[in-house]
Amino acid sequence: PAPKSSSCQASWQCSCSGPKKPVPSKSTSASGARAKTGKPIPQDIIDNTPLPPIESRKCPVEGCDSTGHLGGKYDKHFSVESCPVFHNFTKDECKEKRAQEIGERERNMEEALKRQWFISAASHQDPNASNEQRNYCNKVRDAREKLSEIRPGEDEMADRDRQPSLRGMTPEWDLQLFLEAQASASEKIEDDLRGLPDTKGIRYIEMGRYEMQAWYQSQYPDEYNRQPKIYICEFCLKYMRAKTILVRHAAKCVWKYPPGDEIYRKDKLSVWEVDGKKYKTYCQNLCLLAMLFLDHKTLYYDVEPFLFYIMTIADGDGCHVIGYFSKEKNSFLNYNVSCIMTLPPYQRQGYGRLLIDFSYLLTKTEGKIGSPEKPLSDLGLISYRSYWKDLLLSYLVTYNDKCVSIKDMSAEMAVNSYDIVSTFQAMGMMKYWKGKHILLRKGVSVYEGDLLEEFMERQKRRRADYKEIDPKCLNWRPYIAPPPAEDAPERPNKSAMAANKKNSK
């Protein structure tokens, strides 16, 4: 049992006090992230690779048998975007339309050049334009003034579960351009989804250079949760449904680093403080992303009472998110971490320990004693126990006295006394003997040696690129809540006014 007092005296003892069953180790799961290389595939490999099998998944549209394709290229489909029934077409009409487009494509090369000139020209009255180009401009102008006609029986096909018909509301020219673009986009969407698991819920996300496998489900909108894969901008964290949308977004996204204030920088590593009240959308997107890798993460909408600390690594493209932790602006129980997460591509590289160490650095700067919010997840408990273990052993290595005060250790390291005692007990170092608590240099198992000597040996074997937080690189002031707004003048109480009038009479 843990001691009742916040401080206890410990005497050093080298002998083992009895056998104890070893605690089974918990291995962390694989990150599930793989980097996407830009190397081209040789042509001979492409030619000799067999075509992938036809997808066995079914179209989710009610009344559709998954035959046909909006683009007319395939005989089957499995998505709403490629469903002819959803777009108020039949599979034969889609095939005929594709055959007609292929036949006209070669014959209309000159028309394409005219169309390109038409787009780039400032006006069809350009004096350098030829008569043929003027006639083409007039043809396009007349076609855009004529509305499309409603097909026979199209009103009967109208359904709330189908795409609304645009005939009779838009010009025929614009409608055909829209339908061609829609059919072309449907082929790209299915090509991106082909080969992914046929299950409900998000299974993969693509973010920057990495494709990551989701561990849990998040509270994204329904149209995103129905897809096996979504795409996320690595800078603004906006989520998208298709690769094409991500490419267009990346071309115009002006963000290269998280919003807020950069409070720490050493070499390429930075930490940013983001206020959930000022940047609500960004913080909500960050919480939705974290829910894919945390089973206990439930808060994503109410982010205003929290501060978010995002760790990034910089290169020529910008600052890439490694992980983050959040904490309440005003915590009654002095919690210094509410939620902490490291993205799978950066796990098992020491970044989780850096986030934990940085949270305690902020706690020391505030002059407080902090602790993570309980209960911790399995991976979170493993990470914190490892951090606390090294922190306590490094303290005892340089400690020369025979008596130790848990209260003094807590004040110096800004770690809660309960966390210190529970870590000593988990290591098997703390025992109750003859009315006092003692710390053992050796573990209680016969297989464990001197814990302090083993710790010093591990320190000597550390790599040269071992990552540590440098307090000198911190440029931060503790958060101060803004003063409350002045209260509005109180309205006069009618009952009190009536009583005063009665007394005056």
UniProtKB/TrEMBL annotation:
SUPFAM superfamilies: Acyl-CoA N-acyltransferases (Nat) (SSF55729), CCHHC domain (SSF103637). It catalyses: L-lysyl-[protein] + acetyl-CoA = N(6)-acetyl-L-lysyl-[protein] + CoA + H(+). PROSITE patterns: MYST_HAT, ZF_CCHHC. The active site is at 373 (proton donor/acceptor). One of its GO terms (molecular function) is histone H3 acetyltransferase activity. Residues 197-478 form the MYST-type HAT domain. Its main location: nucleus. It is found in: Nucleus. PANTHER family: HISTONE ACETYLTRANSFERASE, HISTONE ACETYLTRANSFERASE KAT7. One of its GO terms (biological process) is DNA repair-dependent chromatin remodeling. Its EC number is 2.3.1.48. Keywords: Acetylation, Chromatin regulator, Metal-binding, Nucleus, Transcription, Transcription regulation, Transferase, Zinc, Zinc-finger. CDD domains: NAT_SF. This is Histone acetyltransferase. Residues 1-52, 480-505 are annotated as: Disordered. GO terms for cellular component: histone H3-K14 acetyltransferase complex; polytene chromosome interband. Belongs to the MYST (SAS/MOZ) family. Residues 1-17, 494-505 have a biased composition (Low complexity).
